Amino acid sequence: MGVERPWSHQVEAAEAAWSGRHVALATSTGSGKSLAFWLPALTAVRADRAAETLAPGRIESARTRGTVLYLSPTKALAADQVDGLQRLLDASRANDVKVSTCDGDTSFEERKWVQEYADVVLTNPDFLHFALLPNHRRWTRFLSNLRYVVVDEGHSYRGVFGAHVALVLRRLARLATHYASAPATSRTGSSAPRRGIVRPAADDVPARGLTFVVASATTADPAVSAGRLIGVPPEQIVTVDADTSPAGRKTFALWQPPEVLGYEAAQARAAAANDPAADAALAEALLIDPTAHDELGLTSDPDEPATPGDSPERPRRSATAEAADLLADLTAAGARTLAFTRSRRGAEAVATQTQDHLRVVSPQLARRVAAYRGGYLPEERRGLEQALRSGAIRGLATTNALELGVDISGLDAVLIAGWPGTRMSVWQQAGRAGRAGADGLVAFVAREDPLDTYLVHHPEAIFAAPLEATVFDPANPYVLAPHLCAAAAEVPLRQSDLPQFGDAAAVTELLGVLVARGALRRRASGWYWTHARSAAAMTDLRGSGGSPVRVVEAGTGRLLGTVDAASADGSVHDGAVYVHQGVSYVVESLDLRDGVALVARRDVDFGTWSRSVTEIAIHGVRDEEPGEAPAAVPATDPVDAPSDGPTAEPTPGDQPSVLQGASPNDTAHPAIQRWWGPIGWGFGPVEVTSQVVSFQRRRLPDLQILGTEPLDLPEHTLPTTAVWWTVPAEVLEAADIDADTAPGALHAAEHASIGLLPLLATCDRWDLGGVSTAMHVDTEQATVFVYDAYPGGAGFAERGFHLGATWLRATRAAIARCPCADGCPACVQSPKCGNFNNPLDKAAAVRLLDAVLAYAPSD
């Protein structure tokens, strides 16, 4: 394999793991983390194999052959690791180690072989949660001998997803202890575990329990993050973060798309001609992004206003169009390039536009560009991954699915179309360029977004600011409750198990709620799950809102792909346009009950954009903070309001039945209120109700509205936490904001504040939702809400509450410094507004924020 000796950081990590210490390995992309964790893991397996060979007649030798579990957040990364691992085993002539992937794409026959024979299993947290742990009795051999668990790309486990995975890992460790402690004759799920694991071991293998290795990108506080993920104190973790691998030079460009020249003349010609050809010419001048206001559920990724009439006076080319041009130029020049986009639809758009540019030069070159995103069938994903490795594909437009550590050597350049949410992600994506010590080019292409615009003008916010720490809360009761049910279904919960899941008193209290609501049954020996339904089915790790909706071609029955359940209403509703590898289809019918969208192949000159409405209601007891004025905020019913809906809104059935119908998290997080003079700041539990109510057909590429049609789709309710600020009438009046301008001012301030909160919290704007209204029933004042777009909350809104003054000052600066006159995507327009960015009033928003900040405390 060309490796003469390992680097120092690989040796340090491998030796720590070999000695039985948990390891947090946080070095840069391409630094050889894989070798660092495979060395001790494979050595342990081979040592046990050797012991088995030397003592073939001893039962304990066969019983204690070590096993290894590798977890990655994506199937692509697991498949890539298998290829690299097999090369390592072949090079070392270790053909006695049996390695296999096992995930949702694995057949029953293959899965049975893995259960019976595999030494190393590579999978993902979803399979672990939905299949392996609930069916642990079929995995008795594997779990009873589990030596190492490798958690790759640990930095990707943040927010609510991170909390879910942390609890899945606790359930895994509990079952491994259970089987390792049980006598060989009774290793079934019915026997109670005994404490104190003692494993027979080969002479050169330390006798130990389960060892975790968490590998991640460079991040802040890797030991703290890894400890929270696997459920141990940070002091029990060895941190390896000194990267000793060689690194080539990276040229990093902050690229703001240029202003469109001749826009005014093109606009005048279009107005005078008043015909489709002239409108198309204007659209070409604007280069309007067809992904604008994408509610296609492939996740929104707009870069331009909803219509030419909403454009700023000096519009810029869209990030999608600019990235497509750059990708075409790089591909034509022979460079191997990844173009990262913020969405599935964005990846399709960049790939299609790049192919169109290259087709003029060479049809063969155009075929060397493709899109890669979630929702493709497994065989499509595998084919694209292999084509990228072999060089058959030279340019790939992708979502963050390829941000992770898939080993793609020889890449020359990386394009990042839009801020990916965190500095960690930026450097992880950038690390794909110039791997193996070669030089590379990285270009961050800014969208017309307040955060992107801020960053290209403040490079210190990227290059000088510290990396973020991963933030997640496994104690969130909306996350913890269903995992306690799942754990009880696997092996009844005992009192001694509770510290594994958090504070024992808090866990006991939550178990009492689960018993009272019929989810669990309490007996003297512990807590039991007694329902026929799978307890694991109560939890969706990724917040997708249930099983994916299958997209099926009506005429042939061919499965094209899938769409997340939470996105289906806005993306594959009746009449929606669905794009797959550049081919367009129109949805004939959506059946939410069966999870099927029937589509028909059709070439169309229009796209579809859905519209949603959102309501929000405050719940919980209001405790005043010490020294603050009391809050007189009666809780009543929600009202309609302009909104930024969450990207993943669960259906009512997504919540564990034990918590349905209750005010979200009332006891754990009562609403609190503080005051800046007359300005109120609140944080606490809320309930957000959203519904897709209509959609528009818009001609491409000029986005002229062709028609609007109503939709009859169900409401979705999200119990979560929010931060809000209220402005009384006298403050509005003093800021020269009347009843006509208040909705636009509040709405604009809401949009910009959502765009800037990711600077203060480890999230991006897609983790957030917002609502603004000139008179909210609960507060009886003009109110702006920003909420976590996850059940139970994720800590992002709470961060905004505690840093309110800093947050709003940054928001005010971003709006005021934008050169546009009336507002644009770079300041107050939102890429996911459910009301098509109407109404918005930039000037009034600045006056509003000035009036609010006049009462703010100094930093």
Automatic annotation (TrEMBL):
InterPro entries: DEAD/DEAH_box_helicase_dom (IPR011545), Helicase_ATP-bd (IPR014001), Helicase_C-like (IPR001650), HRQ1_WHD (IPR055227), MZB (IPR018973), P-loop_NTPase (IPR027417)
Xref: Pfam families: DEAD, Helicase_C, MZB, WHD_HRQ1
Bias (Polar residues) ranges: 657-666
Keywords: ATP-binding, Helicase, Hydrolase, Nucleotide-binding
Stretches assigned to the Helicase ATP-binding domain: 14-237
Region (Disordered): 294-320, 621-669
PROSITE patterns reported for this sequence: HELICASE_ATP_BIND_1, HELICASE_CTER
Start and end residues of each Helicase C-terminal domain: 325-478
Composition-biased stretches (Low complexity): 628-642
Annotated signal sequence range: none
Keyword ATP-binding in annotation: yes
GO molecular function terms noted in the UniProt entry: helicase activity
Identification of the protein by name: DEAD/DEAH box helicase
Biological classification of the source: Bacteria, Bacillati, Actinomycetota, Actinomycetes, Micrococcales
